[in-house]
Each structure stands twice: as structure tokens, then as C-alpha cells.
Amino acid sequence: MNSIRVVIAISIIAAATLPAADITVGAATARTVSKNLYGINLWRAFDPETAESPEYQANLAAMGVSVVRFHNMGMSKWIDASNRCLNTNAVQRVMAALASKFPIKLVTICKPPFWMDENNDKRLDDDHIADYAAWCADMVHYINIECNAGVQWWETLNEAELGGYKQKGDGAVLAGIFRACKAAMLAKDPSIHVGANAWSWTMPAQASELLSIAGNEIAFYSYHGYVTGSSNADMQSIYDKAVTADNTKVRNALTERGFTLPVWLDEWNMFYNWQADSKRHFMVSYRSAVYDALHMKNAAESGGVDYMLAWNDSDNTYGKMSTKYKFFPGGYVFMLYNKYFTGTILSAASSESAVVPFAVRNADGSVALSLANRSETPQEVSISADGNFTQYTQYSVETNGIQTNLSREPLRSLPLAPESVTVLVLK
Predict the structure, then answer these.
(1) What is the CATH code of the structural domain delimited by 6-32+344-426?
(2) Helix 170-188, helix 129-140: angle, nearest 10
(3) Cα separation of 401 and 14, whole Å?
(4) Of 25, 72, 100, 318, which has the fewest beta carbons less than 10 angstroms from its beta carbon?
(5) pLDDT at residue 339 is higher than 80
(6) Beta strands 379-385 and 413-416: pairing type?
(7) What is the tens place of the pLDDT at every residue in 31-60?
(8) Residue 278: is it exposed, middle or buried by C-beta count within 10 angstroms (0-12/13-18/19+)?
């Protein structure tokens, strides 16, 4: 197919009219993008009632999610505290409701149950390492053998370096825990892939130490990416982080150490501190839609990440849907990206930094073009496109949710609302 040139003239509504800007969508790049980058953490799904909710399931299906991570630091619904064992009824209900709906699944066994940390120092007691390995193995057995859930990917801990493993040498301790758990887990299901820890950022000292000891034994490397914990951060600086984030850092670090491993960015969002006060609501606002679009474009074009999962599915601070299972704006972006942005990435450049383009040619020959307006002012966009496109569909995710327009006329112009994401599907 011939390359497509899309020229967009932008007039920014301000005190003075700025010069028109061009967005050019050109030839195919060497990179492709799949739904593996548009995954979601299933935090609320640990509650069987949520997992079984028809509305919750319908919205996950509408988002087109293929990759999910079952993660909840408390895991309280899955633990029978009185009997100090797995709550098999809760786990069975969750897996029966959801496991078959997602082809790629990760379970994070985030920390030892409380009775394996008797002095409450947030470290697994030495005399309970074998017990924790057995706990992890029992979870694999019940989920994959008893429930036949087919979970392929497993993590033995989550952000342990932010808890009780902050000291020099703790990477070696974590390596020992990982080895014990992996052996016990593979004995139950030898087909699974086991990772050592979901790290809080790209490469903590403990991660580097663990790699030097057990790097040849871990099946994948996972880490998290949040912008800030401060409510003083302004929105433009947060957008900047999405645009400029180095999503190749982990892969390059692994390569330098001689490791070829799948890379999972299995948690990401704006604020790592859920109590970011006056600005934490940004993550469920129209600003989240813009941030998500910028972040996913960066990751896709960089090629540095194999799997990426946003935090999270459903709550009123981070969620792509509310606690009542209503879509927040970010949920619509995931719906659009999973539906239209899988295929060959096309080159896309803008002479105006206020509007950030991302373009993909899908398997059916259609071209999806995302225009993230990161500015606080509306944009007027005029488009001329070379190519045999006879119709287009326009979706706009903005303050009032999602707007849809279907037209069979040549696309000539359209407005971009302030801090919005506009998706055009050209056919």
C-alpha cells in the first residue's frame, strides 16, 4: 500500500492566531503493536461479586482487553485467615467468572500471608520460606489444576524493596525466596513462567543484585512506572513524562547484563500515591484519557516493552471504570486502542507539540489515527489525506465522555476539544 500523507492545519484559539501546523502520517515503520500493550490490572476482581457482575464483565469486554493481571496487595478475599489457608471458594468463583475471557493472564502473589511474618517486619520469616513456597505452589495447583484457569505468568512478590527488603544484600535474599517458590510452583504446573518480583521502578539495587544471582532462572522481568506522588505536579509536566519516558531503559539494562527476557510494565499511571490530594482525581478525568494515549503511543513506538498493564480496572481514583462500573474517559481510550490500534505502526510527526499523533495500519487496510490534544485550548484541525479512503469514523474522548460521528464524505476539518483524544478510522 502506498504511504499516506495527512496534512492537518491547526488554529489555536488564543489572543493571536498561531501559524498552521502539519501532522504527517507516512510510510510503515518496522514496528508492530498488539493488544499486549493495552492490558489492565484486575484489582477489584479479587472480590467474587465484582468478578461475577455482568456490567463489570461487559465493560471489560467492551474495552477489548486481552492481557490482565490479578493483583491486590491485601488478597483478603482469597485468604481464609481463620484457617490460615486459601479461600478456595472465592478463588474458584473469580476464575470461573473471568479466566476464560482473557488469553494472557498474570497472577501476582504479592506477599506472604500474615502468619508467615510473625514479628511483623514486612519480611518473610526465615523459618517460613518453605511454607511460603508451598503457599505459592498451592495457589498454582488450585488455580491451574483444580480450576483449569490456564494462568501462564506468575510473580512471587510485589514491590518487596519498598517493604522489608530495603537493605544492601536483600536482592540475594529475594533470589533465595524466588528459587524456593519457583521450584515448588513448577512442580505443580511445569508450563508456567515465574518472575521474581514486580519492581517499583525500572532497576532498583535489589533487582540488579537478584539478576546477578538468579537472572538465568527468572522467566521475565516486571516493573512499574508512575510519574509522581506529589500533588504539586502540574498537568503539562505529567504529560511531558508520558511523551519523554524512556521505555527502552529496562530492555537495554537487561541486554547489557546478557539477558533476553520478556519485559512487563505491569503497573502504570500518573500518581503512585493514591492520596495525591487535590490532583489524584485527574486519573479518572478526561486528563487520564490524554495521558493514557500519550503513554501508549510512546511505549508502542519505542518497542521496549512486551506487555503493559494500566492500574487499574475499577475504583474512583485510578480506575478505567468507577466502583459502580461506569466508564471513566480512560476506559474509552482503551476501548478504541484495543479495537483500532493493532497492526503496523506508521510514521507520524507533528510540527505542533500541542497535538500528538499516533497512527497504525490495521490488518483490514484501514488506518487509525489518534490525535491527543494535550493543550488546555481547543484546536481547529483541517485535514487532507492522500489515499483511496471513502469514509471515516471519528471518536472524541473529552470532558463529557465519548462522541461518535460516522461520515462517508471526505474528511476536511474538525475541532479538537481541550485536553482530549480524537481517533479517526479511515477506510
Answers:
(1) 2.60.40.1180
(2) 40
(3) 25
(4) 100
(5) yes
(6) antiparallel
(7) 999 999 999 999 999 999 999 999 999 999
(8) exposed
